[in-house]
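Question (not urgent): is this output format expected?
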Amino acid sequence: MLPRRHRLTAPEDYRAVMRGRASTDGRRRSRAGTELLVVHVALPDPAADNLPSRAEGRCPRVGFAVSKGVGNSVVRHRVLRRLRVQMGVRLSRLPEGGDTVVRALAPAAGATSAQLGEALDAALAKVLRVRT
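Got this back:
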């Protein structure tokens, strides 16, 4: 289980990461995907110096989206548990003040924890590489 301070909980936070807000909030958004999942990230933008950053000193937060397209309730919760564990191991890789949403795709239903971990590594590498 992820510690509470590392969890996205409000629907507005999910929308802000996945769909984006106006560029006035001083955050850059990007996404990257694999055949099993898509990772959406909203990161503090260092170029937006004149904007107040609410993300300073805040630990990274993570949310998960597993739709009915993945499977029935049992399958969705299995995928969610596996993703939660895999993401918990990778929290140290996420930048301070960043928000991340991991969206599972239908093929994730048949994936093992190791396969989900590999997909998560690949997607995080892509999305965080865009940052630099």
